[in-house]
Design a protein that fits this description.
It contains two helices and no strands. By secondary structure, the chain is mainly alpha-helical. Helix 1 runs antiparallel to helix 2. Keywords: Membrane, Transmembrane, Transmembrane helix.
Length: 63
């Protein structure tokens, strides 16, 4: 659980940096709502959905 949350935080920070850079490059100014939405979405994906998918697929693997 601790590793999952740390991975989610790191992924969110990376996505936030990418969003900030692209926002400045494309628009010329920073839109905080874009950054906030991308950080929240990334955190939810990494902290909730990826562990659920991994749990589902590990249970159905055929050796």
């Amino acid at each position: 659980m601790k590793k999952t949350l740390s991975n989610a935080v790191i992924a969110s920070l990376v996505v936030a940096l990418i969003t900030v850079v692209l926002s400045f490059m494309i628009r010329g100014h920073l839109n905080w709502m874009d950054v906030l939405n991308s950080v929240i979405g990334t955190f939810i994906i990494w902290a909730v959905f990826i562990p659920l998918v991994n749990k589902h697929w590990r249970g159905h693997q055929i050796d």
